[in-house]
């Protein structure tokens, strides 16, 4: 095996094809001892393999050892929200976890490839690579290249195939598939105006990665996993709402009642795992029903959903949950030891059966919500339809119903958050430092940011076999022009002071074009960045690039990036992109409006001595996207509750004066609020 990266990288390529099919565009070949390559592979014209990956017979890889992993049909959907399929994933992950080192994993995985569902396979090897310390240097290729059919409609892929069938066999230039802007529907339906956002590849890949890292039923407790489930999804809803306001659409409403029809349908036009099977479509005004999927062994009653929700709400308002022994478990965020209430609540709401204080009692509201919605078009398999995209981690954000469900989830979290005592002035104020001025600069212009369209290319032929020919996906996406934050900060102390800089963005006006009060704006504040600065005594000019954001992932790593990342040739991008998790950099800003949209930036400095979390020394993995993704093998690097200071209601008085708007927080010297404009150019950016 050439190196760990290469040995494992090609397991991700062509997930639907035989493992002995040529990979790496032709030169890489897994050779399984005692297993004939399928004739279609052996006779492929023009293939001259130069990298051979021998896979000896492994007597230890037996189907019976895979547990329930083989229970999910190949070519069908795999949903992490279904309890039975979570169990299958756990069985396969456990099996791969028993390997030691890259070569061992490669051999075992190559033997298992083809015996299990393709998505499950990719999920499990991804999980194990991220989990195993000895595989720290191995990066994952982007899901866009592994499963292109999750990102572009079948029609576009079929067109590329037809073009290849007709073209001169000696042609070497790739076929290009353009996709974007028209997305999945027309603007006859207002919701489709948001398709560019919901169907963005980066947002969906982020969601897949996030759940890969913060998997329920993982068997161990990742630091603040529950709180991060709340926070990351809350921030997604906030950003979605901001985008809606940019387009003049109302903020998303929660899925309050599963006994009335869901107004908006969704027709994904995508196929599953490159297999040709379609994801289920939901008509407008579909009435959710109890789930009765016998073939999957999955049954969910809407009544149970209602009961779980009511029990969770009860716990929130009473201030405690009841554990399996009947004992009270207090829900409070102002604790100095043990878990915060938000963590306990979240583990019961998501739910993680192993970490919920009382899984039988509080149930499985969020996961089951995904299930009910994913099968609402065919709840009893009468039509033998596949699940809808909302059941899959890499596609669920495409469907508007995802946001209705997650608004319901967030609504429960917010019910809890407003029961918590507001932050005191002592918790908000940092004496000795003050922000004199703060804003954004782009080129020579201050406080006006620009967005437009851009394109990014991926190799579709890494995930789908187009007769061995190269096919490029050219995806259109929103993009901001890069900018910088500039802050003029005075440190009035005699010695240097380390502070955490927190930067948030929210619209200034609501849908009625009125300035928002604190509570209306509170859950719209989107984290833009969070970083540490050591302020010297006196005046400090702090400059920070938008590309350094603590929430974003630099870029998706392609197969080509990773092939070029042999030791000694590690690009900066690869070196920093540790786990692929993080909000896409190209979606850092909301779209804005052509005429300019009024937004506000909120800056706050807090005492790093109080914020810092001691982590044992060692390599910082997943340092990118840290606010949404945490750090691998380390504690979440901010001791404050996630979303601070906007996760709670405001104190009624600050410095003796009432707090009505966020600007009242900015009366504190360590905070600052500033108006900016975002203009959407509606054209391709240079
Ligand atoms: Cu991420 Cu419901 O948790 O999709």
UniProtKB/TrEMBL annotation:
GO molecular function: metal ion binding; oxidoreductase activity
Keywords: Copper, Disulfide bond, Metal-binding, Secreted
Keyword set includes Metal-binding: yes
InterPro entries cross-referenced by the UniProt entry: Di-copper_centre_dom_sf, Hemocyanin/hexamerin, Hemocyanin/hexamerin_mid_dom, Hemocyanin_C, Hemocyanin_C_sf, Hemocyanin_N, Hemocyanin_N_sf, Ig_E-set
Major localization listed first in the record, in broad terms: secreted
Signal peptide start and end residues: none
Domain of life: Eukaryota
Residue span(s) of domain Tyrosinase copper-binding: 399-410
Subcellular location: Secreted
GO cellular component: extracellular region
Name of this protein: Prophenoloxidase
Species this protein is from: Penaeus penicillatus
């Amino acid at each position: 095996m050439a190196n760990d990266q290469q040995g494992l990288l090609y397991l991700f390529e062509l997930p639907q094809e035989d493992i002995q099919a040529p990979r790496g565009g032709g030169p890489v070949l897994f050779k399984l001892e005692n297993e004939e390559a399928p004739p279609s592979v052996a006779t492929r014209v023009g293939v001259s393999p130069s990298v051979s990956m021998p896979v000896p017979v492994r007597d230890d890889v037996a189907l019976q050892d895979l547990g329930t992993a083989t229970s999910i049909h190949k070519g069908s959907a795999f949903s992490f929200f279904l309890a039975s399929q979570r169990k299958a994933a756990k069985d396969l992950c456990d099996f791969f976890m028993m390997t030691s080192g890259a070569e061992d994993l490669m051999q075992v995985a190559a033997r298992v490839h083809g015996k299990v569902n393709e998505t499950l396979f990719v999920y499990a090897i991804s999980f194990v690579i991220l989990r195993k310390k000895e595989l720290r240097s191995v990066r994952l290729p982007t899901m866009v290249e592994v499963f292109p059919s999750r990102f572009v409609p079948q029609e576009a892929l079929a067109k590329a195939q037809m073009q290849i069938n007709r073209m001169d066999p000696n042609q070497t230039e790739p076929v290009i598939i353009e996709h974007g802007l028209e997305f999945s529907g027309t603007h006859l339906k207002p919701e489709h105006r948001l398709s560019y956002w919901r169907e963005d590849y980066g947002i969906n890949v982020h969601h897949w990665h996030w759940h890969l890292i913060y998997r329920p039923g993982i068997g161990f407790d990742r630091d603040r996993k529950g709180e991060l489930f709340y926070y990351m999804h809350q921030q997604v809803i906030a950003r979605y709402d901001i985008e809606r306001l940019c387009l003049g659409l109302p903020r998303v409403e929660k899925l309050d009642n599963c006994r009335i029809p869901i107004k908006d349908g969704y027709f994904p036009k995508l196929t599953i795992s490159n297999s040709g099977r379609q994801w289920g479509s939901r008509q407008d005004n579909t009435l959710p029903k109890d789930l009765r999927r016998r073939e999957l062994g999955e049954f969910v009653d809407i009544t149970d959903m209602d009961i779980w929700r009511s029990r969770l709400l009860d716990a929130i308002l009473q201030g405690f949950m009841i554990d399996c022994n009947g004992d009270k478990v207090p829900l409070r965020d102002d604790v100095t030891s043990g878990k915060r209430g938000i963590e306990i609540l979240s583990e019961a709401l998501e739910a993680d059966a192993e970490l919920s204080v009382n899984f039988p009692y509080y149930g499985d509201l969020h996961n089951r919500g995904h299930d009910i919605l994913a099968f609402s078009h065919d709840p009893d398999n009468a039509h033998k339809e596949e699940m809808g995209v909302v059941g899959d981690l890499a596609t669920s954000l495409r469907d508007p119903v995802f946001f209705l469900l997650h608004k319901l989830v967030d609504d429960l979290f917010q019910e809890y958050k407003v029961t918590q005592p507001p932050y005191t002035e002592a918790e908000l104020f940092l004496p000795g430092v003050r922000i004199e001025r703060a804003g954004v600069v782009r080129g020579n212009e201050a406080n006006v940011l620009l967005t437009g369209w851009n394109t990014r290319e991926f190799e579709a032929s890494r995930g789908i076999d187009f007769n061995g020919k190269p096919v490029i996906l050219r995806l259109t996406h929103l993009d901001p022009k890069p900018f910088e934050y500039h802050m003029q900060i005075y440190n009035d102390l005699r010695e240097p002071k380390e502070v955490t800089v927190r930067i948030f963005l929210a619209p200034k006006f609501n849908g009625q074009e009125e300035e928002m009060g604190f509570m209306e704006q509170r859950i719209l504040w989107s984290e833009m960045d969070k970083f540490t600065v050591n302020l010297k005594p006196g005046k400090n000019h702090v400059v920070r690039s938008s590309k350094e954001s603590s929430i974003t992932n630099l870029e998706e790593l392609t197969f080509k990036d990773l092939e070029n990342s042999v030791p000694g040739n590690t690009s900066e991008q690869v070196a920093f992109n540790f786990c692929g998790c993080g909000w896409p950099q190209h979606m850092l800003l909301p779209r804005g409006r052509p005429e300019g949209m009024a937004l506000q930036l909120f800056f706050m400095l807090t005492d790093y001595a109080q914020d810092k979390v001691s982590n044992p020394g060692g390599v910082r993995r997943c340092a990118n996207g840290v606010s949404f993704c945490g750090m691998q093998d380390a504690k979440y690097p901010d001791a404050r509750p996630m979303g601070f200071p906007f996760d709670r209601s405001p104190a009624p008085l600050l410095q003796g004066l009432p707090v009505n708007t966020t600007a009242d927080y900015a009366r504190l010297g360590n905070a600052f609020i500033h108006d900016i404009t975002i203009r959407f150019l509606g054209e391709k950016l240079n």
